[in-house]
Specification:
- The chain has 288 residues and is of the alpha/beta class.
- The chain has one domain: Rossmann fold (3-Layer(aba) Sandwich).
- The protein is built from nine helices and 18 strands.
- An eight-stranded mixed beta sheet has the order 3-2-4-5-1-12-13-18, with helices on both faces. It has a four-stranded mixed beta sheet with strand order 10-11-14-17. A two-stranded parallel ribbon has the order 6-9.
- The longest helix is centred in the first third of the chain and has 14 residues.
- The chain is globular, with a radius of gyration of 19 Å.
Length: 288
Amino acid sequence: MGEDKKLNSCPTPNGILLVVGGHENKDGNSENAAKDYHPREILETFVELTGGKDGVIEVITSASSEGEESFADYLKVFSELGVTQVGHIHHDKRGDVLNDQDVISRIKRANGVFFSGGGQLKLTSVYGGTMALFEIKQSYIYNNLVLGGTSAGAMAMSTPMIFAGSKKVEQIAGEVRITTGLEFLKDVCIDTHFVDRGRFLRMAQVVATNPTCVGMGIEEDTAIIVRNGIEAEVIGSGVVLVIEGFNIKDSNIVDFGEDERIQIDDLTVKILSKGNRYLIPRNNPPHL
């Protein structure tokens, strides 16, 4: 057995992830003057990755309480980018998806699946353990599926997944709530709207709970493209903060319930912008 197999005996995904920090430009207008930036770059990239005008895209709006409105926004921009085959998938209850064979068939045909924003806990509680999610994962691992997600749709791709922890409580040890995400990225926690909504402390708490995990905070109108499961590249107008806890010497994260302000020694922080790359560490050997 070669050394690479020892490091990662799980299959390397053939598909690509596009993980978006929310509020990606949809109208093609922007006052952003950053170098090499152009409006709608993120959604244009998603279309290109899925095969351009000939691609088949399914938009899943189940995280949103306004699914029809959310889909209309994406249908408009994807149509303007020349895509003619854009479908809409929406489920409000887990029971509705359990026997939805049509959704499984559509996922098998799709070149791209895009999760809209809303509530990430809705996505995990509705789709977790279903054949629909199994088919998305199979297509991502073996059949070159491009999986995109924005805001809640991006946060749900990760594990662990934050589902609660506002500015009012993120300074208090143990007040950030996490659960198992959809596990397209393992040992990686994604947070979105990261700079705009000041979410550094809640991500730092997640990393402190288990320093095997890497935190990736993605700003609005910014995304990471992940190839081969671990090779991340930044696109868009903002920045991505990578928070690593491998060198943590001490924290008070175990003092939850005592109203203690969080304290962590020796976090490592990287700030990445368009064109920068990051190789997601494999410090936790996969196994059954």
